[in-house]
Amino acid sequence: MSTGDCELCVPNEVLVENSLAYARYDNNSLSRGHALVIPKRHVASFFDMTNDEQSAVLSLLNQVQHIVQKQHAPDGYNIGANVANARSAPAGRVAHL
Predict the structure, then answer these.
(1) pLDDT (tens digit, 9 = 90+) per residue, 2-34?
(2) CATH of the domain at 62
(3) Is a pLDDT exceeding 50 seen at residue 1?
């Protein structure tokens, strides 16, 4: 998959962002407030990000949690990153809240 084919490589409906990552709500979510935090550089997985990119993603997770809490007031949170093989990209580079 080239970066031109990746729907996540072009920030869309941005909730918050920094120089290395951005966050948006999931377009295909089964639960209200399900947010994605995505590095701006196309990588195969969370573990392929630089330390700075990982820190940027985690920083945005904290910011998004405050937004989700204010807008949706969920009972709890799950944080995850799906990491499989390279064919699963771009899903492997996304942090979910």
Answers:
(1) 556 788 888 889 999 999 999 999 888 888 899
(2) 3.30.428.10
(3) no
CB–CB of 23/64 below 8 Å?
yes
DSSP line for 6-20: -TTSS--SEEEE-SS
Confidence (pTM):
0.84
Residue 51 has pLDDT above 70, yes or no: yes
Of the CA atoms within 13 Å of residue 93, those in its CB half-sphere come to: 25
Measuring CA to CA, which residue among 92, 33, 50 is closest to residue 25? 33
Domain residues for the domain of 31 are 3-96
The answer to whether the beta carbons of residues 11 and 25 sit under 8 Å apart is no
At CA 2, angle to CA 5 and CA 63, rounded to 5? 70
Whether the ω angle into residue 90 lies within 30 degrees of 0, i.e. cis, is yes
